[in-house]
Design a protein that fits this description.
The complex is a heterodimer of chains A (119) and B (373). Chain A has 119 residues and is α+β, with helices and mostly antiparallel strands. Helix content of chain A is 19%, strand content 35%. In chain B, strand 16 and strand 17 (330-338) form a beta hairpin. The chains are: A alpha+beta (119), B alpha+beta (373).
Amino acid sequence: MKFTEEHEWLREEDGEMVVGITIHAAEQMGDVVFVELPDVGTMVSRDDEVVVIESVKAASDILAPVDGEITEVNEALTDNPAMVNDDPQGEAWFFRMTVSDPSQMDEFMDEAGYKKFIS
Amino acid sequence: MGDLARTPLHALHVELGAKMVPFAGYDMPVQYPMGVMGEHQHTRRAAGLFDVSHMGQVVLSGASWEAVALAFEALVPMDVLGLGDGRQRYGFFTNDAGGIEDDLMFARRGDDLLVVVNAACKTADIAHMQAHLEGVSVEVLEDRALIALQGPAAGAVMAGLDARAEGMRFMDVADLALGGIAVWASRSGYTGEDGFEISVAADQAEALARLLLAQDAVMPIGLGARDSLRLEAGLCLYGNDIDSGTDPVSAGLPWAIQKARRAGGARARGFPGAEVVLERLASGSATLRVGILPEGRAPMRGGVEIFDAAEGGVQVGQVTSGGFGPTVGGPVAMGYVQSAHAQPETPLWGEVRGRRLPVRIAELPFVAANFKR
C-alpha cells in the first residue's frame, strides 16, 4: 500500500489503483455523514477534486492522486457514510482508477514513511 | 490572535481528552473522545454536561424589584416586571433599528435580576447595561462558572443530589446544594431537552463537574454536539441566525415579546427600535427564519443560497446554520427566505458546490422539545 501527503492510500489491484483515506485522516475528520462520488468513466488529472466528504464538522475533498480514469466507485458509501470511520483502510475504499503515468506513483510514501509523516 | 481565556473547567476538559478549539476568545472543548455524533445521541438519550462558563453572568440590583425590572425593560422588549420570583425568561437586547444586539436569559432572584449573555457579545452587553441602566448596579460575576446538564436523565440526576430539583419546572430558578456545593440552578438549556443550567463559584466548579460526571447517566459534551442539538431544536445561534441586522419578527421570535410591551399593552414600547418592532409585529416582515430540510443527504451549511427553481430562477433566501442532525438522521438547516416562500412544505433549491439540490421548508423545531412544563 502507498500513501500520499493528502492522507490517501492507494492499493494496486489488477493494474489499477484502489483509493481511500487513511485511519489518521478519518479520525481527524470525525463522524462522516455524506460522501459524493465521481461518475465512472470520468477522466481526472492529479489534484482534481474527485470526492466530497462531509463530516459532522466540515466538508473536505479527496483529490485524484494521479492522472487516469475512474473505473469503479464504492456505492455502498453513499448509503452508509459511517463506513469511512469504521474501516477506512479496508471496506471504505472510495474509487478505482487507471494510472496514465506510472512515474507519478514514485513520490508516494510506504507505510513506514507515512507513519513518520503524521508523527 | 491574543491569548485564549480559560474557563474554570479547562484542566478537566484536557484531562478528559477533549479536543480544544478557540471559541469566542476561549479555549473550549469541541468534542471528547466519544465524538460529536455519540455525544449528541447521548444527550438525547441520557444526560450531557456542557461547560458554558464562557458566557457572561451579570447581576442587576437596585432600590427595589420594580426599579430593576423597569430599568431593564428600557433595553429589552420583554415583560420583565411581570416575571415572578424564581422564574426565568428568554429575551434579547434590541437596537434603534429594531435589530437584535444579543439574545439572553434573565432570571428573577428576589429583587435582583441575573442576566446570562453570549460569550462573544458579553463585553459589549456589559458596557450597554452600564451605560443605560439608570439607578441600577451592574455586577459582572467573573468568579462564577456555568455548567449545563441536559437530557432526559438530567432531572433524576439533579433530584438525586438535591430533592428540591424535583419540583422545578421549565424556566424555574432555585438555590440548590449539590453534594454540599451551593449553586443557582435554572431548569432550562439550549438543546431542546429537559435540563438545568447551573451557576457555581469558580473554585467549586471542577468539584461539581466531577460529581455530575460520576453519575452513570452523565457524559461530557463539547461545542460540536451543542451546535447540532440546538440546530435540531430550532434555536438561534447569535451571530449566525440572528444579529444586529435581524429584527425579532423576521427571526421568528415574536413569542418572546409579551403582551405588556406590544401595542395596547400596559408598558407598550419604551425599548430601542420599538416602532420598527411593533410595525413588523402588525404587518409582518419581508423575510422569515424557517427550517430548511435538504431532501438528499448533502448537508447545507451556513451561506448556502436558496433559489426558487432547479435552474435559473432567483435567489429567495440563504442558510444561516446547517449541518447533519444525528437525531433526525440526515441534514437539517435553518435560514431566511422571502415570506412568500416561507410556508412549510414549499419546495425550493439550495446551491451546493454549484449544483441546485432540492429542499423543503420545514416547521421548527426538527426534534420536538422535551421540557418539563
